[in-house]
Amino acid sequence: MPSSLAAFIRLAALVGLAVAIPSNITAPGSRTETAKRATCTVNSVASAANLSACTAVIITAFTVPSGNTITIAAASGATVTMTGDITFAKTTSAGPLITFNTNNILFNGGDHKINGNGALYWDGLGTNGGVSKPHPFVKFKGFGTFEDVTVLNSPAQAISVGTTGGAAIIQGITVDNSAGDAGALGHNTDGFDISASSVTVSKCVVKNQDDCFAINSGSTLVIEDNTCTGGHGISIGSIATGKTVSGVTIARNTVGPGLYGMRIKVDADATGASVSNVKYEANTITGSTEYGILITQSYPDNDSTPGTGAPISGISFTGGVTNVAVASSAERLVIDCGACSGTWDFSDLVATGGKGSIIAANKAVISGGTY
Ligand SMILES: *[C@@H]1O[C@H](CO)[C@@H](O)[C@H](O)[C@H]1NC(C)=O
Ligand SMILES: *[C@@H]1O[C@H](CO)[C@@H](O)[C@H](O)[C@H]1NC(C)=O
Ligand SMILES: *[C@@H]1O[C@H](CO)[C@@H](O)[C@H](O)[C@H]1NC(C)=O
Predict the structure, then answer these.
(1) Which of 213, 222, 242, 299 has the CB geometry, 3.0–4.6 Å to 265, for a possible disulfide?
(2) DSSP run (H or E) holding 17
(3) Range list of β-strands (E), 73-122
(4) How far does the signal peptide extend, from start to end residue (predicted)?
(5) Which pLDDT score is estimated for 37?
(6) In this structure, are residues 131 and 106 in contact, taking their beta carbons and an 8 Å threshold?
(7) Same domain, 294 and 184
(8) Quick one: pLDDT at residue 33?
């Protein structure tokens, strides 16, 4: 739907609901009841405590003190709109620090910020040690549309997508951890970690120091028209024991510069897991310094002795040319398979620059492509 129409519908919804704010209803038998509250304002931790009757939530600017977290659990179908920034003080709380858990939500951040004050934690060690860092910073649960917010300076991983019960559309969101580049202090600052199905992420921008997207499990996923800079590109995985990813379209994204362009990374010791049917269409990858495209079953190694317990099948580069232009230090395409199969149509892959490509595709047959 055109965004002007969408904006009109949202405005109409807000105005209509505002009319229904608290009023006492005189019921038969002269009993007085308080009507369902429709529009609720969140301007503090306490005011977010119980939003279950709210069909419209307005979040104004406020600061969340140490030791607190926020959950936006409104009525099904609620609109949740930000009119100011939410700022988190350095906290002793574990993540997620803010959770959106509303069915059929329309969350619009109004281009305001959810600010994690990451610089107060960053020490170059991420979630591997040093200062304890709440993670993830932001969690999307429930389902619906999540749009137009900037997630700024997450202590570690930024947004975790764990939606259930319906489809999710995530669009126009910026994850800006670029301040963590200074002194290489930002680490493990993944943009979106996805363990969910029926999710489309489009037109998002991620500036960070780890995966832009990491898809850990799920099916029917679309990652399209996003821009990733500074980090480790768009990843499927790492795939752990018991995890399955199937049916992913990765289209028209722009990635780089950074260590990697796009990866499928399967844990070398994973069993009962698989990756299948991944389509890469018309992506642009530039300036990768280590690997342009890496498909490996040796994770956490990049390219060594692959495992065989988590097969990969049905990988394609079709539907528009994916251009990969790597830095002189990098490999263009590396496939490191212990259990891969099928015919992989790479006819729309054009990879140039760097040192070369290393293909160990096991039983998969790669057809077409320039690498
Ligand atoms: C509703 O009724 C309660 C109890 O009689 C009263 O305290 C309150 O002020 C009323 N609210 C409105 C909006 O009239
Ligand atoms: C939340 O508010 C609703 C009504 O608005 C009420 O029925 C419910 O008991 C409240 N839940 C808690 C945990 O206070
Ligand atoms: C994989 O390659 C990256 C980039 O060169 C490097 O930083 C990382 O240490 C490598 N991983 C392992 C386990 O060797």
Answers:
(1) 299
(2) helix 3-18
(3) 79-82, 86-88, 98-115
(4) 1-20
(5) 55
(6) no
(7) no
(8) 42
220 with 84, same domain? no
> For the chain, what is the domain count?
2
32 lines ligand 1 (CB under 6 A): yes
Q: Is residue 181 part of a domain?
A: yes
Range of the domain at 123: 32-197
Give per-residue pLDDT as tens, 225-273.
999 999 999 999 999 999 999 999 999 999 999 999 999 999 999 999 9
Query: What distance in angstroms lies between residue 50's CA and the mean position of ligand 1's atoms?
Result: 20
- Distance from the alpha carbon of residue 288 to the mean position of ligand 3, in angstroms: 13
Identify the CA nearest to 311 among candidates 336, 335, 277, 339: 339
Q: Which pTM was predicted?
A: 0.88
Closest CA to 118 of 130, 134, 129: 134
pLDDT at 115 over 80: yes
- For residues 170 and 36, membership in a common domain is answered with yes
Looking at per-residue pLDDT, the higher value among 273 and 21 belongs to: 273
Pocket test for ligand 3, best of 211, 265, 290, 305 (most atoms within 8 A of CB): 290
Tell me the CATH number at 68: 2.160.20.10
Q: Is the CB–ligand 1 distance for residue 24 below 6 Å?
A: yes
Q: Which of 25, 34, 36, 37 to mutate to test the pocket of ligand 1 (most atoms within 8 A of CB)?
A: 34
